[in-house]
Amino acid sequence: MSKKTQSPPSLHPLVRLVKYGRQYSNLIWKAIICSILNKIFDLAPPALIGAAVDTVVQRQNSLIAHWGIKNIFGQLLFICFLSVIIWGLESLFQYIYERLWRNLAQHIEHDLRLDAYSHIQELELAYFEEKSTGHLLAILNDDINQLERFLDFGANDILQVITTVIVISAAFFILTPGTAWMAMLPIPFILWGSIFFQKLLAPRYADVRDRVSLLNSRLANNLSGITTIKSYTTEAYEKERLGLESEGYRQSNQRAIALSAAFVPLIRMFILSGFMAILLFGGMEVINGKLAVGTYSVLVFLTQRLLWPLTSLGQTLDLYQRAMASINRVMNLLDTPITIPSGKIALPVSAIRGEIVLEEISFAYSNGYPIIKNLSLHIPAGKTIAIVGSTGSGKSTLVKLLLRLYEVQKGRIILDGIDIKHIILYDLRRGIGLVSQDVFLFHGSVRENIAYGSPDATTEEIIQAAKAAEAHDFIMQLPQDYDTIVGERGQKLSGGQRQRIAIARAILKDPPILILDEATSAVDNETEAAIARSLEKITQNRTTIAIAHRLSTIRHADCIYVLEYGQIVERGTHEELLDKEGIYANLWRVQTGVRQLSKP
């Protein structure tokens, strides 16, 4: 679970955001206050204009004259002095609120991205089978950026519109209670229109966010498979498929834009009615001597200042709805339950002996077809066992269950007498070194990839691990030897080179339990023999589980288990299994053409 307190998905997205960012409540309140003060000072110039008109028309009978300043020039000078202060304070508070809102946006964006990424890392592998990489990237990047844009501009715009309505409404009712309602008349219709448009826009922008996820998924998938695309000459086909996704995104946006663009023209008509009412009836009040010229000037300016900013509600509403759709997606990701929680029992690497017991375990993937069925297995500490079997027999699934990448659905797995469900996940996985047939190298240097998981390793330790994995010689032939950049997913290296670096990585980690999942599947026979010699040394006094199709690589294991349809059908040493004339012996004959090699 994320370190932040999660909110129920039924809550409004804005409420969920506020609950998430409550640690920044002090910063939020400062930004809100500065936005309000900025708008208050921004609304003051019409009052100064009214005072100037009052001074010119009324002269010694003006409002400022009643404050003791009789000289006309002095009155105008005093208005200029007030203008400097008001404009200065308006500029100051604008500078402050822009910094506060933008910094707040950066803080929350940073926290959300790290929390969302951290939460994704804690989710089980089954989650990633259902969600594409592009979908997750869209949330981590595009959706969180939408939130940043809203906090940068939208939140301040909403506050300032509210402040404008409250301050100017109060001024109207103080100055001209009889005509104030004319300026206020359009506001209920404008607010109703805003709420109405918001309800109509919400599902449209939710669809926009879903469409951009599909588009990102297609792009991420195609870029990852660019070699396959080129080799099968399907560039035109993939461009067409991307075009369909992009067209869907464009049309979804068009549907949202068609509605949001209608907001401002509609609101402008309501604004016009209020402005004309004040212009007409307020002017008649002046003619009839019921309203001062200066006050009338203030009212005309304030009406424009009150109603015209409401036209920006269309853009603000557009920004708001995009942000709310994005917030929902980010928060829903954070609310995704972690189905494989960490245990509480600490088991440091130095304390792990490596005895593994599988007690009647069963497991099936989401399709419901059982992969492992009531399997029991005892692996003594410090011994090397091998698991062989046909494709789909459940060999690699056992590895994932040992690492708790998936959870057993029946039975239990015990490490040194402790159910692995009760062991702290970090300690469990730290004690296991995995060399998979699907080697993943990160974009970076050879040195960084070997030291991945062992950041404190010295150069000498890295070189020794590379030598043990028979990788040192080819590394020294690279352009910058250990500092050579391997490219994304290690694409600058051959399959065998990538696999040897992965073995070096596991050797450097020096785990008490070593799992070799087809560790030599991508190397030639000569390299395989060299790696086999190295593995023979590094597996001593270390619990080792070797999964292999090439039986020659595991013939010296202490015990070999033959797995078929999720169950162990044969067990024994290499010689014992050959003597049984069963599945293993048949596999050996297929691979070697001989029944049995002489014992060493």
Automatic annotation (TrEMBL):
Q: What Gene3D superfamilies would the database entry show?
A: ABC transporter type 1, transmembrane domain, P-loop containing nucleotide triphosphate hydrolases
UniProt keyword Oxidoreductase present: no
- The transmembrane residues are 72-93, 158-175, 181-201, 256-281
Q: Where in the cell is it found?
A: Cell membrane
Sequence ranges assigned to domain ABC transmembrane type-1 in this UniProt record: 31-322
Any one cellular-component term (Gene Ontology):
plasma membrane
Give GO MF terms, alphabetically.
ABC-type oligopeptide transporter activity; ATP binding; ATP hydrolysis activity
Specify the protein's topology with respect to the membrane.
Answer: Multi-pass membrane protein
Q: What Pfam families does its record include? A: ABC_membrane (PF00664), ABC_tran (PF00005)
The cross-references to InterPro entries, in alphabetical order and at most eight, read:
AAA+_ATPase, ABC1_TM_dom, ABC1_TM_sf, ABC_transporter-like_ATP-bd, ABC_transporter-like_CS, P-loop_NTPase, Type_1_exporter
Which residue range or ranges hold the ABC transporter domain?
356-590
Q: Which domain of life does the protein's organism represent? A: Bacteria
Going by the UniProt record, its keywords in alphabetical order are: ATP-binding, Membrane, Nucleotide-binding, Transmembrane, Transmembrane helix, Transport
| UniProt key word ATP-binding | yes
The protein depicted here goes by the name ABC transporter related protein
What organism is the protein native to?
A: Gloeothece verrucosa (strain PCC 7822) (Cyanothece sp. (strain PCC 7822))
Provide the organism lineage as a comma list: Bacteria, Bacillati, Cyanobacteriota, Cyanophyceae, Oscillatoriophycideae
